[in-house]
Write a structure and sequence with these properties.
The chain is an alpha/beta fold. It has seven helices and seven strands, in the order βαααβαβαββββαα. The chain has a seven-stranded mixed beta sheet.
Length: 168
Amino acid sequence: MSIIHGQAFQLGDDVNTDIHCSSKYAPGKDSQFISTIAFEKLSSGFSGRLKLAQGGIIIAGEHFGINSSREQAIAILHLMQVRCILAPSFGRQFFRNAINNGLAILECDTSQILDGAELTIDLQTGIVQTNHHQTIQASLLPKEVLKIISMGGLIPFLNQHPDWNFAA
C-alpha cells in the first residue's frame, strides 16, 4: 500500500473530528449512520460525494483533527473509504489514532491542491502528484510508521512483530 490513488475532497482549517466524525453529538447513532453525515456542517453532501467516488483523499487545512481524542473518528473515515489525509498539520492525538488504526496521513502544503483533483501519493517518498502536473513533497513518515499503516494498524503490527523486529 505504498502508492495511493484517489480524488481530492477538500475541507478547511481547524476541523475537529470529535464534532464531525463521532456520535458525541448524535447520541444513539451508530458509526454507519455517522459516516453518512460526517463533515456535513463543513461541506454539504461531503460524505455522499465521497461515496459516489468510492472513496478518496481528504485535503485539509491547518490542524485537522484538532481536539480529537476519539478513535471513532478514524473508524468513520475508514467507513467513508478515506484512503489518506493530507494537511499542513494535524491534532497530535488524531495523528496518533490515525496511525494506530491504519489510516495513511501525511503533512504537506495543501494550498495548491484543487478540490476534485486526481492524486497519486507515494508513502515511501512522500511525493504527492496531481493530475494538474503539480508535485508536492510531504513530510516523510518513519519506516516503522509506514509498516504499521500498511498492516492496518498498531494491533495487527504488534501481533506479527511483538519485538518490533521486522524487515522494512
